[in-house]
Amino acid sequence: MQLEISQLDLKYAHLRVNDPSDSKALLASVAESGQQAPVLVVGGSSESGYILIDGYRRVAALSKLALDHVDAVLLSVPEAEALVQGYRLSRNRRPNALEEGWLLLELMEVHGHRQCNLGSVMGRSSSWVSRRLSLVKVLPQAVQQAVRQGKIPAQGAMKSLVPLARANKTQCVELVINLKNERPSVRQLDQLYKSWKDSNPIQQKNLIEAPGLFLKAMAESKTSKSSPSKTVGEAALTRDLEILVSITRRCRRHVRDGVLQRALNTKDIQSTWQELTMVFGTLSRQIQKEIPDAGPRPANSHSDSGEKQGKDPQDRPGTGHRPQGGQESSFKWGAGSPPANPSRTTDAAPANGARPV
Fold first, then answer.
1. What is the domain range of residue 77?
2. Has residue 345 got a pLDDT over 90?
3. How many domains would you assign to the chain?
4. 294-305, pLDDT tens digit by residue?
């Protein structure tokens, strides 16, 4: 049947965790395909009202999309039994341990079930019931509320905040309050708890008062370990070499595009080229002396593969430009200079013995 959303009593919303990522995905699904599964309701105290048992996220998504109606199935059973049926029928999303604990506590405190009977009612063992109830009894209400609102991940609360609350309930509450607008991940909560456990009282107090600062410091420490810092000179040399690589590739493109073939006066180009190869040769020998592994790599090295690095095949070492039709370039080097093919000017050794990089 179809019901107006305004007819629903959302009295059991506190038994659900508001997961922002899940809610966003469901909202997109409902917007594209509409409501795929009906919600479960029971009759309310008034003739026109219904109590929503299962389907809170679907109703929230429909409301955000400004839709007024929801497909529903009416359960002709008491509320307590309907809650159990809703739990057993939930297939798309299984409740987490905290939500299960909230449900058990609701059945005990509101609907009068005894703990010794809850195992058979839920189809679970007595130890399962005890573990779920201990979670909600140990975890402070302020922390549970943060989990409900999606500020703290349920898994992180169970893994890290429950043991913290057992050790120091006051600091557990202060930690959640001091996180403010931070939405820590499960891993970050684990880091906070482990660091708290391994610290002295003064360090623990500092961590609890500024957890965001601690997480930022941890992130920066991780970044610095994965990317060691450089000296000023090292950074400058690296930058200059990167500039030289870019300029060299641009020069190769000029040669490939036939600049030398159309040149009117090549004397300046030849003179500059000879000076450049001499300087490059000196620089190459200096770098190879300081860094033995910086020498030329084999031709079949993956690092030299143009295909691997997205380079133009003609921009790889040893691959030059030839004019269309196989004609040799009209540009001629002086005596003792590199071959006439301009495409190999950057790879051949000049007459003075200097070797380019």
1. 1-92
2. no
3. 2
4. 555 554 544 444
